[in-house]
Amino acid sequence: MRNRSFLRWLNLSRKRLSLILLALVVTAGALLFGAYVRAQQPVTISFLLRAVEADQMQGLADQFMAENPDIRIEMVRGPNAADAVENLYTTSFLLGDSPYDILFSDVVWIPKFAAAGWLTDLSDRVSEADLADFLEADVAAGVYQDGFYRMPFRSDMGMLYYRTDLLDQVGLQPPETFGELIAASETMQDQTDVNWGFVWQGLQYEGLVTNFVELVAGYGGFWIDPDTLEVGLDQPAAIQATEFMKGVIAQGISPPGVTNYIEEDALRQFENGNAAFMRNWPYAWAEANRDGSPVAGNIALKPMVHSADEQPAACLGGWGFGISATTPHPEEAWRVVEFFTSPGPMKDFITEFAYVPSRRALFTDPEVLAVFPQYEQLLEVAETAVPRPPVGQYAQVSDILQRYLSAAITDQMTPEAAMQAAAGESRRVLGVDG
Ligand code: GLC
């Protein structure tokens, strides 16, 4: 009796046992299959960038993904104003666990992002020899203390565009000085059918600061000396630069709406034939010269105007790649960065969109020169471009300058009062107001 009931019990439990085993096998199989499927799924590497640029970089991203099926690049389209993109990155990093594996970084962001610990030091991944081909200033922009945080992708510098046909029509040479730019504008506005003399970037944003950097240097002054943290905003050159901006609007050389312009707005006016001169970055060349552009074949570019006893100055701009400190995929992120910054893809990108390379050799590359003969001269402009101050408080001092420049050019303050206030606030932020 005892035995039989034991066997029955055992019988039952055998059945149970096999059911349990079966369940275990099925579960393990499902888990393994899941892992296998995940391993086959590409890893996504994501970054945020200005929408116009995302459209242009899609071709390279597609090429990379075709060659690297284990990685998917996700480019998130952001606003077209550079510092609006910076604000979005900052918020995402502040919230922790940023969704972005890569920081597609303006040339001025690194001290802040590196100091906050949001970026991976890339020093182990690139040697000095690897960096030797890059423009020095572009490399320097990636250095913070002993680390290196940003691989340069493309450089940038502000230039003066002009209409060759209109200058010919009135029999003038391209202007060298501020005064010549104003005089030539007035002549062309009088004697040709062009509406405006000079368009530039006057919205309260980072682009306004880059315009100012060129003007202040053209008057022989400076914004912030990065070594001493001396602030030059209340010195005569900075006040003259602000007066110039305000003056061209007041004299009807620039449209009143220029105080709301970013790069694309100035380009639209110039390309539609509404302006004789434009301050913009080299990329505007390809756009204004494309087939079907009303001004195609009738434009040229040169270094910015300056005062008679000074040199022309271009503000250094440009973009590059950093890697987030918290990305779960640092290896894959690095493969993406390596691809975009290598000579072939960089060359394809800059020749298609008239961007300025960060690699020196591309300025004299015959295939690049066949498309852009002006690049041979641009190398010198790139090597002497004026950087914005690489200080950890850059976003704050830029914001101060933007606010006061905007107040001056929209007639809320005199240039002098605006620059004095901007200088005072900047000194307080930099801790040099003692
Ligand atoms: C361009 C420059 C960048 C600059 C921005 C301002 O994108 O490359 O450095 O900050 O313009 O609008």
| Count of distinct strands | 12
CATH first level of the largest domain: Alpha Beta
CATH topology of the largest domain: D-Maltodextrin-Binding Protein, domain 2
Shape: elongated
* CATH architecture heading of the largest domain: 3-Layer(aba) Sandwich
Helix content: 40-55%
Helices and strands, in N-to-C order?
HEHEHEHHHEEEEHHEHHHEHEEHHEHHHH
Question: How large, in whole angstroms, is the Cα Rg?
Answer: 28 Å
CATH superfamily of the largest domain: Periplasmic binding protein-like II
Percentage of residues in DSSP E strands? 5-15%
What ligands are attached or bound here?
alpha-D-glucopyranose
Whole-Å distance between the termini?
101 Å
- Averaging pLDDT over every residue, what do you get? 94
Which regions are unreliable across 5 or more consecutive residues at pLDDT < 50? none
Question: How does the helix and strand content classify structurally?
Answer: alpha+beta
Oligomer state equals single chain
What can you tell me about this protein's structure?
The chain is an alpha+beta fold. The protein has two domains: 43-156 and 316-386, D-Maltodextrin-Binding Protein, domain 2 (3-Layer(aba) Sandwich), CATH 3.40.190.10; 157-315 and 390-430, D-Maltodextrin-Binding Protein, domain 2, CATH 3.40.190.10. It contains 18 helices and twelve strands. The chain has helices spanning 2-40, 51-67, 82-94, 110-115, 128-131, 136-140, 164-170, 178-191, 206-218, 236-250, 263-271, 284-288, 330-341, 343-353, 366-371, 375-383, 394-409, 415-430, and strands at 43-50, 71-78, 102-106, 143-144, 147-148, 151-157, 159-163, 196-199, 275-280, 299-302, 316-323, 356-357. Strands 3-11-6-12 form a four-stranded antiparallel beta sheet. It is elongated and about 105 Å long. The chain binds alpha-D-glucopyranose. Alpha-D-glucopyranose binds at residues 82, 106-107, 156, 206-207, 210, 263, 281, 317-319.
